[in-house]
Amino acid sequence: MALNNGSTTNQALLDAQLELWQNTFGYIKSMALKSALDLRIADAIHHHGGSGATLPQIVARIKIPSSKIPHLRRLMRVLVATGVFAAQHPPPAVGSSGDDEDEPMLYTLTPVSRLLVGSQNLAPITTMNLHAAFISPFLELGSWFQHEEAPESCELFKHAHGQTCWGQADRDATFNALINDGMVSDSNFLMDIAINECAGAFQGITSLVDVGGGLGASAQAIAKAFPGVKCSVLDLDHVVANAPAGDTGVQYIAGNMFEKIPPADAMFLKWILHDWDDEECIRILKNCRKAIPPREEGGKVIIIDMAIGVEPSDLRHKEMQAVFDIFVMVINGKERNEKEWKKIFFKAGFSDYKITPVLGVRSIIEVYP
């Protein structure tokens, strides 16, 4: 019996060590995914269709030195183990016994990696999230916690880089494009789902301003789905300067949401408010409130953001919402629960709201004057 108790205790210790390692080496999974994006491995597999691609076929597309091929095999093993890709032995050739373990593996796409290929993929937003500018500040997270700083200076990104994220985007065209392209890819993915799942949020209005809407992917999706809605995009000068040319179906307006927002029936803010602290959100929302008509005339604000704990969530949803809250902390942002949302809505002069949790870890939030 004592031996059995000892074995049980030992197994519990080993399980705890495994959990510790899962957290310790989680960054390896992120960097493996980043490498796959840098090398365009998903595109190489996708090029060969549904049957998959062997390692030599992948190498022929991504063009790495022959000396790195054994290391690529090990990278693929991690990407398969983490569900980014799948691997299987090819069907045996005619006349083969099927026992040849030296047959090259066939790598195929999974639901995860299918999101990284095609015309409307999430590769740009994933590349942005894994960019060194956002990753490196977290190496200093422990020391950042120990420094006393004024609230307006309490930004991890600035602590690491000497300027705010938005300041760098203003000065660095490449970094600005990284953010804008990432937001476009997320909007291209999410907006059709949002419109299908919650079309009522966009019905009954004749005009809409996409506040901080970047290059206008969300506004374009709304204008396409609801041709009777006149859609505009408000963003800073350097963002609007890169707006797509031609007939996009939307109007682009250079301006600052902290100063003034042009009038419309509805304001739309997708993944905007989680970038800012409460006081800044209240300033934005007060400007939205000034720009819309009363509720009985169709006035509302439509928000796409996380509402932590609103819906019954599985462990993965809860974990991702918690992780995302730390991720946006890098730019002094914040993910909010319903109580926190309600507080800023009412402080900004709104009287009611409705949260519809239909977008995975994110929700559609309608706010009424």
From TrEMBL:
Protein keywords: Methyltransferase, S-adenosyl-L-methionine, Transferase
InterPro entries noted in UniProt: COMT-like, COMT_C, COMT_dimerisation, SAM-dependent_MTases_sf, WH-like_DNA-bd_sf, WH_DNA-bd_sf
Molecular-function annotations in GO: acetylserotonin O-methyltransferase activity
Gene3D superfamilies, A to Z: Vaccinia Virus protein VP39 (3.40.50.150), Winged helix-like DNA-binding domain superfamily/Winged helix DNA-binding domain (1.10.10.10)
Taxonomy, superkingdom: Eukaryota
Domain O-methyltransferase dimerisation: 21-118
Protein name, entry field: O-methyltransferase ZRP4
Source species: Urochloa decumbens
